[in-house]
Amino acid sequence: MSDEMQLVSKVLVLDNSPECFIQIKQFCDQNGLIGLKVTSTNIMAILSAYVDLGAILLSDNYCESQADTLDLAQQIHRARPELPIVLRKTSTSNFDDLPEKQRKLFCATYTIDNMSPLRKVIDEYIFSLVYPNALVRGISELTVSTLENLSTLENRFKHIKVITETPYIVRDRIIFGEVCSLIPLESSWCRGYMMLQTEEGGILDVLGYNELTMNEGPAAFRTVNNILAELTNLLWGAFKTHFIAADDPGPGFASEVPIVINHQHKYISFGSENPHLCFKYILTDENNSHFIPVYQWFAFNLYWSPEDFKEIYASVDDFVDSGELELF
To answer: Binning pLDDT at 50, 70 and 90, where does residue 314 land?
Structure first.
């Protein structure tokens, strides 16, 4: 893996113009965006299938009439208010004549001949936080290593491969799957949470009921909970070892923000408008017959000072002093 890791973000593109879409795709490629073109007419169903978006790009003539386009924007805003909607104005647009309530549905507007407002939105709403390359690269590497090493623990995972996707930024607040874990991260340069999300059924399918319980009967959801808790704890320890020095003084203050979870809507709020750093891993068996998606979020909602981040390079003396390595 290279030292430089380019963060990306997924954006839903609702635009029917083939000519404009070519330019939008070029803009996305040049600015770290993965454009997802929607061809289905059931936009809200498509939207519900994506839980890791950064923004919505909507053309003012996407629907048959401007009224229908505005109605669609209202539906999207109502369902996912955390996602900025950017409107592409056409030459026949009368956006400026709309009531203020409707104009507020959009964080900005742009034209295909002037995409600079879109660039500003990307900087302000998506790539607003700086993440050191060493941190992004290190998190991905240590997580892959931890997932691969998990196969040696109690023989729970056998013949599991780990597939990684490019790290990306999300503004979404929708939780993936049925089970998730949260653990706090605190240091002199950050305060926030690491969150893991996955599907209960996928884990049971890959591992098998007998293997999970050592032939003691069918596994229940508590088995999955225990596995995710074990993985979370291992990753928390690896994060501290690699990125938080033993003599780190800590954040120096103890302010807290409530975390709100709405189970019915699978929604979580960390009390901050900042986007989150996201990693996605796919665990698959040797036959590629089953897949377990694992989403890893980092929400530095309480404190973030990337200029104070330093990667820790452990020496042999450090391991001897800590007792992890013994000379004989």
So the answer is: low
Degrees to nearest 5, angle at CA 22 with 18 and 27? 140
Q: Which residues contact 178 (CB under 8 A, 6 or more apart)?
A: 199, 200, 201
Nearest CA to 159 among 286, 282, 283? 286
First and final CA of the chain: distance in angstroms? Answer: 35
- 252 φ/ψ sector (left φ>0, alpha ψ -120 to 50, else beta): left
Question: Using alpha carbons only, what angle is made at residue 105 by residues 47 and 39, rounded to the nearest 5 degrees?
Answer: 30
| The length of the chain, given as a count of residues | 328
Nearest to 239 by CA among 312, 160, 318: 312
Predicted confidence at residue 2, as pLDDT, reads 41
Crossing angle of helices 133-149 and 221-243, in 10° steps, is: 140
Half-sphere exposure of 309 (CA within 13 A, CB side): 21
3-state SS, 111-142, equals ECCECHHHHHHHHHHHCCCCCCHHHHHHHHHH
Please answer whether residues 275 and 128 qualify as being in contact, where contact means their C-beta atoms are separated by less than 8 angstroms: yes
Query: 239: number of CA atoms within 13 Å, CB side?
Result: 25
What does pTM read for this prediction?
Answer: 0.86
Domains parsed from the chain with CATH numbers: 9-126 (3.40.50.2300), 133-322 (3.40.1550.10)
Weakest mean pLDDT among 38-42, 84-88, 123-127, 236-240: 38-42
Tokens in use for 51? 């839980």
